[in-house]
């Protein structure tokens, strides 16, 4: 029965043995030292890792950082008192607020933090802190549109029919923008605005912020919505430089309330196993060294007053920022999501 | 069938089944919990679109795969033309391609900025999108085409077998009565293959329902992406569970349909099979058309995407070839190895009990456990997390009671959750494979063994195991591949900080820079090719 080269009993048994060995080694896969810090981060690895390495060098405290694009709040909520998370880093404000709303964070009493981070960029209850700021900019084609002095409201005007590109409006960056519109104009008017913007789209919302600028460069649309730092990041990427060079970066609403600002931030997890070290890390992130790194590596506006933005970011010029308190965005977050479903913005 | 199996064996079978269907049960329980009006909001707004998108997508993919697969299967099974022998296995190659990778490659090519449209603009002098019409690939139909390209081999494989197994006497009769090859196909071949096609379409529909990455990349919202968004976006597990329940309803209806079709199939498979001389020998134009059709399919669904991927991988090799790549590869292989081992052991136990148990009801454990295959990864993730979280807390509560420091998140915080979910989803594959092997072992061997005083354990170890090893190996291999490819469950259940090849590749796909993850994608595809080599060998033996 057994032919040459066929799968024999001997090799079968050795395979089975190998399998057994693999299964029994399962337990050893995930082990970390108890005193190490665990950071759950929505922010990307390339940005956070160099800063955390510096922290480890300075203090000798090891940091395990784990990244996820979605679901960190959900995970911490599920893990409850057993959660290993010490510090949470978010890439936008709504996720910071989600943590607060779900009662997953706890207040920090640190003079260092309160000195480093201006009052409007931290929670009155000390349970969250902003680390960096960015503008939700409007990019316009150099060839076909030129430099614009427009408002977010203008994006719904007929003038731009079929000319706008954006990522999904369900993305936190856009939800925050919608929330700010609700804060300024109320739900009914914002809904009309959303319908107008939707009618102006050149294509169904897709891709990320950079992909929209690329689409402008390719001529698919004339106007793109995107965060400020992406402009700087594209400028320093050999492949994407030509995309950024095809557009102007515009700061909307300079004639009235100012441009919409979003922040990235941090919070201390409610059941953080190593609270003392976690606070040390938070203080470090608000320090000159870390703030400068955020500014240089990710082209964002540091929250610490005496840390200057990078040379390139500074070259985009001064601008007026919307003075709407950040917590107002949180109040309107849920309403924004519902409006987006109602007008089926992404569909 | 044979006496002598104690109750404890049966109980073991039931225990396995209960553990494996626990997620399904947990999901349904979770769906009954209140969800703070999230679900009713979804019903009022976007849910109808999600449902119609899901159904439309399944319909289009089923029809698309059918239209692609049936001619290819007919040609390979019933005709003879140049390179037919190669096509019979090469047409399976697309199975190794994850749909989202094919989707990414084609989007890159067919987008406004891609080479195809750029060339058209140059040739015709167009300057803006308003100057001409070009179909948008990032649509529901675009997703359906992409999925059809990689899923059609399921229908092809089943249809090909069905065509080959159709009785030669019927075919001869049709020829004598003057049927042309076309008439023979429409009147005889196709109608008789209907049950096989139904099974194939049910499989394709299930795979379509489970797809997360392609539709998410194309921004086509379906029930699968809705479950993900509702869970992580709205933060409502219960609303997500309700959506999942709707989805399962649709899927189980399809599974029922498939079972029904398969039962009918048994009626006509016991006749003389076709021989080589029964093939239509195609010549001239017909031969070339057939050859071109099959080649085109393979080029579009496999070769072209593979070449593009290889190109990316070479361009970005220095950047991708690092310790992380090795870590992710190791994670993927490790998880796949563990899962296939566990699946095979569980399947073997259940099938053994079913074979030798005197109780008819002992077929139940393997049947129940097989339902896991129909549960999409996104949905399964919820079903797995709910009971495991509960268990984690229960264990720590016990420690707390004795004032001891608990072990933390033993199950949900480790790869255990991931492995458990994969086992639930893929044990059906190993069950099917071992079931088939068992059919070829004569019951008289069991009787002889019992007569000679062997205990059930010895019967399994010394008689069945050696005879089943091919089926066991095939089952393990298929589970291994599926575990390498499975994305949504891995995405949702991985312990925080854990990446494998699939999650690593998808992260780059969703960031629109697959180039950086191309090397990892190539590994997934190449590992996926291994069972095809194996399958090829058994196809060769067949003919």
Automatic annotation (TrEMBL), chain B:
Record keywords: Cell membrane, Membrane, Transmembrane, Transmembrane helix, Transport
Family stated for the protein in its record: Belongs to the binding-protein-dependent transport system permease family.
InterPro entries per UniProt: MetI-like, MetI-like_sf
Taxonomic superkingdom: Bacteria
SUPFAM superfamilies on file: MetI-like (SSF161098)
Membrane topology summary: Multi-pass membrane protein
Transmembrane portions of the chain: 12-33, 53-77, 89-107, 137-159, 196-219, 231-257, 287-313, 333-353, 373-395, 415-438, 459-481, 516-535
PROSITE patterns from the UniProt entry: ABC_TM1
Pfam families: BPD_transp_1
Main location: membrane
Domain ABC transmembrane type-1 span(s) in chain numbering: 51-255, 329-535
Subcellular location: Cell membrane
Protein name, per record: Iron ABC transporter permease
Residue ranges that the Swiss-Prot or TrEMBL entry lists as coiled coil: none
């Amino acid at each position: 029965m057994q032919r040459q080269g066929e799968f024999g009993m001997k090799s079968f048994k050795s395979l089975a043995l190998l399998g057994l060995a693999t299964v029994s080694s399962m337990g050893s896969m995930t082990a970390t030292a108890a005193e190490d810090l665990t950071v759950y981060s929505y922010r990307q690895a390339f940005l956070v890792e160099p800063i955390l390495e510096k922290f480890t060098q300075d203090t000798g405290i090891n940091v395990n950082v784990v990244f996820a694009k979605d679901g960190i709040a959900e995970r911490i909520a599920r893990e409850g008192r057993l959660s290993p998370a010490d510090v949470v880093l978010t890439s936008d404000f709504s996720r910071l607020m989600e943590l607060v709303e779900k009662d997953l964070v706890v207040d920090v009493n640190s003079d260092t933090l309160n000195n480093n981070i201006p009052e409007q960029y931290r929670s009155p209850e000390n349970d969250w802190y902003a680390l960096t700021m960015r503008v939700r900019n409007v990019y316009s084609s150099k060839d076909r549109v030129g430099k614009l002095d427009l408002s977010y409201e203008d994006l719904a005007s007929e003038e731009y029919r079929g000319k706008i590109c954006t990522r999904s409006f369900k993305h936190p960056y856009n939800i925050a923008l919608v929330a700010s519109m609700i804060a300024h104009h109320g739900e009914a008017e914002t809904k009309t605005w959303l319908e107008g913007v939707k009618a102006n789209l050149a294509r169904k919302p897709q891709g990320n912020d950079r992909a929209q600028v690329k689409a402008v460069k390719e001529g698919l649309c004339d106007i793109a919505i995107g965060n400020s730092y992406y402009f700087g990041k594209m400028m320093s990427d050999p492949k994407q430089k030509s995309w950024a060079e095809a557009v102007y970066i515009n700061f909307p609403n300079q004639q009235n309330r100012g441009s919409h600002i979003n922040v990235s931030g941090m919070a201390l997890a409610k059941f953080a196993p190593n609270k003392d070290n976690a606070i040390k890390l938070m203080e470090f992130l608000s320090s000159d060294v870390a703030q400068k790194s955020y500014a240089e590596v990710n082209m964002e506006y540091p929250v610490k007053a005496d840390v200057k933005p990078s040379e390139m970011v500074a070259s985009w010029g001064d601008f007026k920022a919307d003075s709407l308190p950040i917590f107002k965005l949180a109040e309107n977050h849920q309403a924004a999501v519902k409006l987006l479903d109602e007008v089926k913005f992404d569909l | 069938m044979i006496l002598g199996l104690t109750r404890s064996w049966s109980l073991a079978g039931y225990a396995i089944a209960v553990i494996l269907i626990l997620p399904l049960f947990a999901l349904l329980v979770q769906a009954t919990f209140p969800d703070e009006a999230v679900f009713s909001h979804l019903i009022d707004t976007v849910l109808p679109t999600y449902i119609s998108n899901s159904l439309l997508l399944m319909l289009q993919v089923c029809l698309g795969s059918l239209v692609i697969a049936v001619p290819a299967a007919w040609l390979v099974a019933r005709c003879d033309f140049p390179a037919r022998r190669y096509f019979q296995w090469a047409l399976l190659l697309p199975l190794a391609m994850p749909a989202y990778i094919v989707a990414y490659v084609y989007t890159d090519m067919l987008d406004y900025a891609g080479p195809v449209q750029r060339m058209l603009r140059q040739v015709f002098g167009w300057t803006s999108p308003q100057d001409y019409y070009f179909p948008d690939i990032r649509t529901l139909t675009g997703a359906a085409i992409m999925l059809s390209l990689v899923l059609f081999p399921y229908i092809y494989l089943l249809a090909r077998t069905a065509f080959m197994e159709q009785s030669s006497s019927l075919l001869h009769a049709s020829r004598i009565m003057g049927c042309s090859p076309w008439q023979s196909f429409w009147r005889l071949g196709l109608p008789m293959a209907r049950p096989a096609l139904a099974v194939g379409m049910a499989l394709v529909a299930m795979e379509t329902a489970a797809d997360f990455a392609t539709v998410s990349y194309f921004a086509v919202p379906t029930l699968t992406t809705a479950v993900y968004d509702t869970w992580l976006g709205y933060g409502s597990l219960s609303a997500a569970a309700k959506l999942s329940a709707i989805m399962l309803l649709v899927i189980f209806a399809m599974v029922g349909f498939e079972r029904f079709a398969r039962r009918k199939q048994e009626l006509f498979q016991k006749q003389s099979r076709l021989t080589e001389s029964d093939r239509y020998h195609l010549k001239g134009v017909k031969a070339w058309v057939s050859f071109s059709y099959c080649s085109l399919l393979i080029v579009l669904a496999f070769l072209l995407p593979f070449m593009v991927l290889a190109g990316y991988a070479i361009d970005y090799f220095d950047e991708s070839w690092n310790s992380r790549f090795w870590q992710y590869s190791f994670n993927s292989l490790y998880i796949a190895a563990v899962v296939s081992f566990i699946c095979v052991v569980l399947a073997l136990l259940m099938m053994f009990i079913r074979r030798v148990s005197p109780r008819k009801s002992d077929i139940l454990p393997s049947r129940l456990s097989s339902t896991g295959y129909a549960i999409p990864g996104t949905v399964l993730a919820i079903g797995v997390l709910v009971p495991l979280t509960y268990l984690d807390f229960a264990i720590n509560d016990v420690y707390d009671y004795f004032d001891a420091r608990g072990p933390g998140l033993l199950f949900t915080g480790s790869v255990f959750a991931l492995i458990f979910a994969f086992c639930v989803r893929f044990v059906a594959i190993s069950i099917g494979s071992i079931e088939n092997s068992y059919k070829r072992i004569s019951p008289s061997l069991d009787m002889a063994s019992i007569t000679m005083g062997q205990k059930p354990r010895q019967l399994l170890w010394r008689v069945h195991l050696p005879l089943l090893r091919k089926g066991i190996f095939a089952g393990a291999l298929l589970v291994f591949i599926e575990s390498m490819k499975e994305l949504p469950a891995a995405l949702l259940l991985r312990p925080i900080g854990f990446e494998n090849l699939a999650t690593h590749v998808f992260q780059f796909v969703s960031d629109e820079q697959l180039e950086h993850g191309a090397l990892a994608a190539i590994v997934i595809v190449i590992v996926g090719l291994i069972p095809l080599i194996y399958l090829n060998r058994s196809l060769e033996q067949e003919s």
